[in-house]
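hey all, quick one before standup. I had two proteins in the batch that finished overnight and I want to keep them in one place so we stop losing track of which output belongs to which input. First protein below, input sequence then structure tokens straight from the run.
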Amino acid sequence: QVQLVESGGGLVQAGGSLRLSCVASGSIFQILAMDWYRQAPGKQREFVASATTGGTSYADAVKGRFTISRDNPKNTVYLQMNSLKPDDTGVYYCNANIRDTNLYDEEYWGEGTLVTVSS
């Protein structure tokens, strides 16, 4: 079994910064991709950023402001969020595509961390 645990959320003023972390633990053979999604109040969950072995990608809404990075030996993905806007408010979820020690690929979600940006 694999677990994802996010941290780093909180309350910040518009224009400020936060750094989110997500640590994967358990029966991990290889992490194929680690992504961030978010869900604003009353809205559907949306893609934010992805980090795979092939590179990184971002939603248009966060390009130039957010940076995703991975620390592979620590099974950790980070999301550095700068120039935050009230529209960035929401619960941020870590998503990972992981190959376990039985060489079985499965998608996992964390429980989320709340980011609130005040105007």
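OK second protein, same deal, sequence then tokens:
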Amino acid sequence: QVELVESGGGLVQPGGSLKISCVASVDDFSIYAMGWYRQAPGKSRKVAARFLNRGGTFYSDSTRGRFTISKDDAKKTVYLQMNNLQVDDTAVYYCNAYDTQNRLDYWGQGMQVTVSS
């Protein structure tokens, strides 16, 4: 059973920064390609940043240059450092773990990030 627990969300002013975390309760963290998705009000869930199955990272056009995804394999944790946050970044942020061996997706419960003055 895979459990993803997100933390670090909240309210931040435009131009501010926030770092969110996701701890994965898994046996072998190395087989999972981790990522962050977000869903703004009234919109579909979209990728914000993620690690690719065969290595490397991917960022959406709106997050590239401002967001940085990283991970700590020993802690089984993935992070998303978000800088220069804008009102349009307001969304529920979801941690995603893609099991590359069994081709299964797992999701965290979601966490609100609100950018507002």
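Flagging for whoever picks this up: The radius of gyration is 14 Å. The chain has a mean pLDDT of 97.
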